[in-house]
Write a structure and sequence with these properties.
This protein is α+β, with helices and mostly antiparallel strands. It has a single domain, classed as secretion proteins EscU (name from scop, 3-Layer(aba) Sandwich). Helix content is 41%, strand content 14%. It has 3 helices and 2 strands, in the order ββααα. It has a two-stranded antiparallel ribbon with strand order 1-2. The chain is globular, with a radius of gyration of 14 Å. The N and C termini lie far apart (30 Å).
Length: 94
């Protein structure tokens, strides 16, 4: 069985030191989505599937800060990804 190709992806960038909301920095479907995911994996960027949030993010223009009505959902995502990153730091590096 071959892995299913991603239909659509969106990527956010958030720098807590900038003091601004996360921005949509990439989005795409099909082969573009595959390339975005490959680059994320290549650079150690954590990935999470959230179809409902993806639908909302994909409606934004690239470079746009997320709107206030998405703050809570994106904050939960950031907390999840930071916890995942911290857990990875607990394991010894090869």
């Amino acid at each position: 069985m071959t892995p299913q190709r991603p239909q659509q992806v969106a990527a956010l960038r958030y720098d807590s030191e900038e003091g601004s909301a996360p921005r949509l920095v990439a989005k795409g479907t099909g082969e573009v989505a595959e390339r975005i995911l490959a680059l994320a994996h290549e650079h150690g960027v954590p990935v999470r599937e959230d179809p409902a949030l993806l639908t909302l993010l994909s409606a934004l223009d690239l470079g746009t800060e997320i709107p206030p009505d998405l703050y809570e959902a994106v904050a939960k995502l950031i907390v999840y990804l930071r916890a995942l990153d911290q857990r990875a730091d607990d394991f010894p590096k090869p």
